[in-house]
Amino acid sequence: MAKKLHPISVWALAAGGMVGGGIYTVLGVVIAVSAQWAWLAFLIIGILAVTAAYSYVFLSNKFDDSGGVFAFLKEVNDKAMAGNLAWLLILGYVFTISVYAYAFGHYVSFAFHGSAFVIRILAVGIIAALILLNLAGVGKMTKVEIGIVCANLAVLLALGIYGLTKWDAVQLVAGIEPRPVWSALVGGGAIFMGYEGFQLLSYEYDRIKNPAKNFMPVMISAVVFVVVLYIIVALGATFIGGAVSLVDFKAIALSITAQKAFGQTGVIIMTVAAGFATAAAINSTLFSTANLTKNIAKANELPKWFKHTNGKDIPDRAIIVLGSLAGIMAIAGSLTALVEAASLIFVITFGTVNWLCFRESEKLKWIPAIGIVIAVITACTLLFRVAISKPVAFGGLLFIVLLVVLGRPLLLQHNKKMKTGTDDN
Known about the structure:
Order of helices and strands: HHHHHHHHHHHHHHH
Subcellular location: Cell membrane
Protein name: Amino acid:proton symporter, ABT family
Pfam family, one: AA_permease_2
Distance between the termini: 39 Å
Strand content: under 5%
InterPro entries: AA/rel_permease1, APC_superfamily
Transmembrane segments: 12-33, 39-59, 80-104, 110-132, 144-164, 184-203, 215-247, 267-293, 314-335, 341-359, 366-386, 392-411
Number of helices: 15
Oligomer: single chain
């Protein structure tokens, strides 16, 4: 952990942070919404990801801080917004971990013809295993993660390119209704969480070798590569599997594709790739989120209970609580609902980072400006979609936002009184 991250490592971790669980979980969801325009959905929302990557790096370099958006907002003296967004961001990461566990359970179970019960056991089991690894101090294994990323990218790229050789535009709408072009925006918003992950590197800014020189080109190139990869896989997988199959089996869309392309051998390869990729994504997100939670607690924006670390300097309480919540959501929630909830939180977060960059930069302001516009349109579109199609989920989101906005000040006031009482004693 003390070693500096070289550019190749940063690139692999940024790309792996996105692809690790992203494309495995969102492909079937975006095809269900956007049909033949799924590739355009990945492109439009990918532009937002690129602008956010630029903004994250710009602000990290400007403030020389490894705290991500929470630290950025504190640097500009907007502590109230920093606290509110930090709480929502932690929730977004919990949703994300649950989606990755959901995908892990489905992909591994499919290979062994497991039941719904087996899927739940696998989802909870992988989270429990990674909680224990992190508590033991061996959760963050950078070299292992990089190896998994490289193999994962190779498998996905090979599958996508193979699919492109089977070009058949009819397959893009095979068995489903064609969608209008504007559905790409709706679909992109619904699966934006497929692009989250690169920003975890901003939490490890102090570990990056010569970040002022290396961070920007490495991060931008990694995100652009993933955007292109997603488009290739979206087209290639649909040409192979057909739209209706990927929609009907959205939780294991890429295993269905691999099976149709290469039979049982394809299923085995995809299961191994998906299993390791989603497990690595869970591990990385859990580790980074726990440390973020600890730092937020140190800033008195969360109960000081979360500052606790074990003998290996691991934020044990944060890891246990976050992992347990994610496990519950993985077995209780639906894939689409979890993906959309996480996507909305990250759209808001990335839009905020673009806004900060626009405000703090003196040149190339058009880059974050584009991101702000896309983020606003995407957030409004996604909110409208959730309100119409999932009113109960929409009500739940509103309740959570109100709880954060109204409950956080009360908690801070309580913490202040507790601290004052301790000082008096």
